[in-house]
Write a structure and sequence with these properties.
Layout lengths: L2 H10 L5 H33 L10 H50 L2 H6 L2 H43 L1 H48 L1 H6 L3 H53 L5 H43 L20 E9 L5 E10 L4 E6 L5 H8 L7 E6 L2 E2 L5 H6 L1 E4 L10 H6 L7 H10 L3 H6 L17 H15 L3 E5 L7 H15 L3 E5 L11 E6 L2 E6 L1 H7 L2 H11 L1 H21 L1
Parallel strand pairs: 3-8, 3-9, 6-7, 7-8
Antiparallel strand pairs: 1-2, 1-4, 4-5, 9-10
The structure holds adenosine-5'-triphosphate.
Length: 604
């Protein structure tokens, strides 16, 4: 998108307040005309004062006061009108800034997880704030300055030809030269400005990345290296920025020089025309005022173009996100089936992230309501992708997923997700109170329901130990809680939602043995009466699953109950042997993890 079509789109954002916006444009037109009338009336006053009366007496105040009064009237009107325009423009810009921010916020929250997997959340926040504030400045400058400048340059400047075409031609030549110099500088700086923006983005993303990984930076003693890397980017940024600044300095010098030259030319040419009786002194004064005013407008216009180019990368990034369409969307005939029973079937499902390699290939299985299905297999074998297809993070490229016999693409997305509770590997809690975090599962949950969910999730004790109980605010991503406490809260949250289908995506993999045992109890409660899918690396945790699906390279290579699979002596049996049947070697190999497995192995 070119810079000017970008600007056009930014102005188009005002369409929600079209009446006020058009009113401000008309007010600008009137204001620009009044500002042009002032020098003309001033020139008239000079002419009246220098015009001798027939009796040779000097012109008195009586002869000139109506013109002076009109001049003062226009001046006063301009001040009041400019104030009214400024105030309303300010209000409009503030209102619209909040509107576009809210639109961006809603849109980003609706974008699929596959989009969020590839974009840094800090970058999205920055883009929302910077994009909206760039728009705010552009709207404000449009109504306060650019609209009046546009009218002055394209309507009133040609109109001066009717006033005195000779002096008007000088003004037009000056504006023409100014335009050429600016266009040249824009051409020269276009590529450089793009480079500046690239370095700016690199600077922001490097800093964001480092801030997000402070523990790693400190423990790996990388502070110096990270600072050095930031300085290198800063040096590149400065190297690209300096030539751009030099070119814009050329514009400033050219504008000052052309201002002085134009005033001088009007003065000299005007003096010659005056000696030939072709202009009056008042007209010369009028045109000198015109020139000064136009130069002011041109300087404003250059400042604006410079600002627009500098903001273009931010605006593009803002609109790129806003234009990203969710890959999964509601089918026009999609329905809300209410609460589902939870009979899930995958029928020949395949999915590819990059349209080259299949992450999941021809996966078929079914689960009756209330059954527990475990997905196991080596890392990267397609387990999370398979379950992502169940709650429609993305849609299959082949095959279909059904619930209660209905293709999930025929179910409204909100309705589908209301029926599926997901406990993520990373608990993902909000920097809000424990209660607010739990209520995300069910906004209108009663105190008794909250208590019951906490009890089932084995979370009641630690919550009551918090300084403010349920009111305790748990910090960014729940950092003031331990990993196990966070995980139990996320299970309680899912339990409050009370969906017929539950998905546990490696919910216990990062926990110690004691916590894992507590969470196992919570999981057992959470799965009762629901169709449950569990991704697990520790096979002890899926001992009681109704069916285990063993994944390899995106395909199901074995399926059956724990005992059947162990008896079969295939891939699962090998994995189980490594984890459960040789606890001694595990103990030696993996310390605490080994002990956990051994303990669980014994309990099986
Ligand atoms: N967002 C993504 N973009 C591109 N490829 C992806 C993405 N997510 C996963 N993949 C690829 O798809 C394949 C399956 O990944 P998936 O996460 O489903 O495996 P997994 O069995 O759940 O692994 P793990 O046990 O390590 O979580 C892998 O090769 C992975 O690299």
């Amino acid at each position: 998108m070119s810079v000017f079509s970008l600007y056009w789109r930014v102005l188009g954002e005002l369409r929600g307040h079209a009446k006020l916006a058009y009113g401000l444009v008309v007010a600008n037109l009137v204001l620009a005309a009044a500002q042009f009338a002032e020098p003309m009336l001033f020139g008239k006053i000079i002419d009246l004062m220098t015009h001798e009366q027939p009796n040779g007496a000097p012109v008195g105040l009586r002869e000139i006061w109506p013109t002076v009064a009109a001049w003062a009237g226009f001046g006063l009107f301009s001040i009041v009108a400019a104030m009214a325009v400024g105030l309303n423009a300010d209000r409009l810009a503030h209102r619209c800034r909040l509107v576009v921010m809210a639109r961006y916020f809603d849109h980003v929250l609706n974008l699929p997880l596959s989009f969020h997997a590839n974009v840094h959340s800090g970058r999205l926040l920055q883009s929302m704030l910077e994009g909206a504030s760039a728009m705010f400045s552009l709207w404000l400058s449009f109504f306060r300055e650019n609209c009046a400048s546009f009218i002055a340059l394209f309507i009133l400047l040609p109109a001066t030809l009717f006033y005195n075409w000779r002096l008007a031609s000088l003004l037009i030549v000056m504006v023409g030269i100014f335009y050429l110099v600016t266009a040249l500088v824009l051409r020269r700086t276009d590529a450089l400005q793009a480079l500046v923006e690239r370095h700016n983005a690199a600077l922001a993303s490097h800093a964001g990345d480092a801030f997000g990984n402070v523990p790693v930076v400190q423990s790996f003693t990388r502070v110096h290296n990270e600072s050095q890397a930031l300085r290198r980017i800063s040096d590149d940024l400065l190297a690209a920025q300096l030539p751009v600044l030099s070119w814009w300095a050329v514009v400033v010098v050219a504008s000052r020089a052309s201002a002085t030259m134009t005033v001088l030319a009007i003065f000299l040419y005007g003096a010659r025309l005056h000696s030939e009786g072709l202009v009056t002194v008042g007209e010369i004064v009028t045109f000198i005022n015109f020139a000064t005013m136009l130069i002011g407008r041109l300087e404003q216009a250059v400042g604006f173009v410079n600002f627009l180019f500098a903001q273009s990368a931010r605006l593009r990034e803002f609109y790129t996100t806003l234009d990203t369409r969710p890959m999964v969307d509601d089918h026009p005939n999609a329905i809300d089936p209410g609460r589902l029973l939870g009979a899930v079937a995958f029928e020949g499902v395949s999915y590819s992230y990059d349209a080259k390699r299949m992450a999941v290939r021809n996966v078929s299985f079914s689960a009756e309501p209330g059954e527990t299905i475990a997905l196991v297999g080596s890392t990267g074998s397609g387990k999370s992708t398979t379950l992502g297809l169940l709650h429609r993070i993305f849609d299959p490229v082949e095959g279909r997923v059904t619930i209660d016999g209905r293709d999930i693409r025929d179910i409204q997305l909100d309705a589908l997700r209301r029926n599926i509770g997901v406990v993520f590997q990373e608990p993902m809690l909000f920097a809000r109170s424990i209660e607010e975090n739990l209520r995300i599962g069910k906004t209108d949950a009663s105190s008794a329901e909250i208590e019951a969910a906490l009890e089932l999730a084995q979370a009641k004790d630690f919550v009551s130990r918090q300084s403010n109980g349920l009111e305790t605010v748990i910090g960014e991503r729940g950092r003031s809680l331990s990993g196990g406490e966070r995980q139990r809260l996320s299970i309680a949250r899912a339990l409050l939602k009370d969906p017929p289908i539950m998905v546990f995506d490696e919910a216990t993999s990062a926990l110690d043995a004691t916590t894992e045992r507590q969470i196992q109890k919570a999981l057992a409660a959470a799965t009762k009466g629901r169709t449950t899918f569990v991704i697990a690396h520790r096979l002890a945790t899926v001992r009681n699953a109704d069916r285990i699906l063993v994944f390899d390279h995106g395909e199901i290579v074995e399926s059956g109950s724990f005992d059947d699979l162990v008896k079969k002596g295939g891939r699962f049996a090998t994995l189980a042997a490594a984890q459960l049947l040789t606890p001694e070697s595990d103990r030696a190999d993996s310390g605490e993890g080994g002990r956990a497995i051994a303990t669980l192995g014994e309990s099986l």
